[in-house]
Amino acid sequence: MSKAALIVGAGGIVGGNLAERLLAQGWTVHGLARRPSFRQADLKPIAADLTDAEATRTALDGLDVSHVFISAWARQATEAENCRVNGGMVRNLLDAVGNAPSLSHVALVTGLKHYLGPFEAYGAGAVPETPFREEQGRQDVENFYYTQEDEVFAASSRRGFTWSVHRPHTIIGYALGNAMNMGVTLAVYANICRETGIPFAFPGSPTQWNALTDITDARLLARHLEWATTNEAGRNQDFNVVNGDVFRWKWLWPRIAGYFGVEPAPYGGSAQPLERTMADTAPVWKKIAERHGLIESDLGRLASWWHTDADLGRPMEVVTDMTKSRKAGFLDYQSTPDSFTDLFDRLKRDKVIPA
């Protein structure tokens, strides 16, 4: 059969950009979500709650796809619950679609918390030295990424498909209503600062301000997913995936400020979380949206203060090694400043933020 994909989380920052990539390359693409609402007209919607095994089997009954991409998770109150719920979702999915006659590969997207540990034990274990390499393995802590991986590995052994695991850093890309979206969050933050005169201050830790770091463009991640799932070198492998350049936030922050025409505040030497400083700004955004005719006036559907605080508040350096992918043949590169400005330009074109 021709290439046919099932993307779990097709409305998110990873799944949405992957869907755009695969559709442009001529794939047939099915998108699964609890309440499908996708921007791509050619994306075939499937409604399913993966926590419900029977409903998942019913929703996927008779679906034949060659590739499955898992790019969704459900945040829970504790990591034990994260493991139970998110592991169960992957198990229910693969039990339902694992017997598809044409299924050849399953790709799982996780992230660098594979090395850093989960939110409730962030950096608490023996965090390996940077740059993070795939050979460094797992932390000795509960982590739903590991549970998801184990479900994929077990289903692969039962069903005979190959697998790949993809570990991006902070993902920058186009998505709305996404709970883990630094790019849109910073764009909204800059516009609120410009509107109110609140200083455009870097909210993170001294380490993140001064140390080297990197990010992952969602478009590059989409290309990496397609490459790994359609090439022999990507089969049954785990891969880090980042843009390929490094930067310091103290260098990039003034450039983001300049894009939006705001003055970057001097760094104060300690973290100033956005979840606190932006707590009462929903009415400000609503006024901005109404005045400029923007498509989304609900600040909660655009800005993920807590997630950006978690990324920028890290007390350790986070840099990622891409040697394994390079040696296997994936040579794509993406300029990080362009990742941000390309996103900001698109948000303006789509009237998500003021032009």
From TrEMBL:
<dbReference type="Pfam" id="PF22917">
    <property type="entry name" value="PRISE"/>
</dbReference>
<protein>
    <submittedName>
        <fullName>NAD dependent epimerase/dehydratase</fullName>
    </submittedName>
</protein>
<feature type="domain" description="PRISE-like Rossmann-fold">
    <location>
        <begin position="64"/>
        <end position="354"/>
    </location>
</feature>
<dbReference type="InterPro" id="IPR036291">
    <property type="entry name" value="NAD(P)-bd_dom_sf"/>
</dbReference>
<dbReference type="InterPro" id="IPR055222">
    <property type="entry name" value="PRISE-like_Rossmann-fold"/>
</dbReference>
